[in-house]
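#lab-general

N.A. 3:47 PM
ok so I finally got the sequence cleaned up, no stray characters, all 447 residues accounted for. can someone with queue access submit it? mine expired

B.Y. 3:52 PM
send it over

N.A. 3:53 PM
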Amino acid sequence: MGADHSPVGRDAAHGPARDATHGPTHGPADGPAHSTAHDAAHSPADHAPAGGLNEPCADAMAARPPIEGGRVRVVEVMATGTNGGAQEHVYSLLTRMDPNRYDVRVVSLSHGSSIRRLEKAGIAVDVIDEPDDHLAVRALAELLAPLEPEVVHNHMFRAEVVGTKAALLLGEQGCRRPAVISTVHSSRVRCVDDRQALRQLTPLMDRLIVVSKAIERKIRDEGRVGAPVSLIYNGVDLQRYNHQQPCCTLHDDYRIPEASPVVGVVARLEAEKGHRTLIDAWPLVLAAHPEAWLLIVGEGSERNSLEGQAASLGIADHIVFTGRREDVPAVTAALDVAVLPSYREAQGLSVLEAMALSRPVVASNVGGIPEMIEDGVSGLLVPPGDCDALAAAIVRLLSDHPFADMMAKRGHDLVHERFCIEWMTSQVESIYDEAAIKLRTSAGVRR
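B.Y. 4:20 PM
back already:
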């Protein structure tokens, strides 16, 4: 099968402008947009993003012809209801899908704050809070049977296992087996038993979706074969970010002097996100910019340890741990520099969001991040775990405002060229349509 490289795009204005001493100075600009869907029958190296000056995001939002047989019934299965990139992906996808074409609900294998967010958006959510996989499979199959889904779409490892086995169990019980789709969101290296389980289940899936070429390489290295693979990058709500104003109370909220530049990271406070390296780098940043502040946005198990690290380095008075914030786009828009110092990363959605807001970005050269950032052009890439390189990149952006502004503009344009949420949604919807049509045709269903 050949790769689909239709160019996609939309024109858009840059985010809010601010004085260079306090943040962004990027004015409005237009840029072409483009994203890709990729079939894994070809090597990742064969599929560098193709440019284009069309307006495919606008095309993706155009009405599509109805499918014979009524709305496609889809159940999204999430491994956990806590917050993270996968949950953000599900939320963005479901709030963009056409409710006249798709009957969608969510099943989460644990409770969490992302469940409340989905429910507030009017999306039906069921929670199966059962830690035993065998029991969770049976509970999910029991829940799915009366729903008669045509597609079960799994997100994250445990959902891949439980969701796939539940769909297979439906078939064994005499029900029509739904198509099984799994999106691989994580770059985490699984244990031997987990990899073996995925190798056994993958041939029984109808399609895998990967969010970066790095993840495609990962699943290939894990020996996951037997299901077609599509590359669909996570997308950003460009319309939302084009009109996002910076949080005007950020300095007051945390008693940061008005003239002080603010560097920030938005990520779960977990070891793989690299906060420890960023905190180690902060004394070097303060040596060059003693007025700078570091904002650490997010929640997680590492918070106490990271706060202790900051205190031991004597820099706690220039670091703010905000915990969870509901206004992350506004906070990101108020940053002078956005940082993602991860040790591993599937794609790095917070990087895309910062770029969409015209924030200059420093990020680790790992996983899918280099697929979004061209070093020295649309952002700065540094080796993971290298606090000296990380500090030098941050200092460079804080010191050279024209350079920072240029990179912020190019990053913004790149997001518009390749990462619109409408194209992401359209690609996933096409996979749902294909699965439903195949299922209905084989069953002679005309509903």
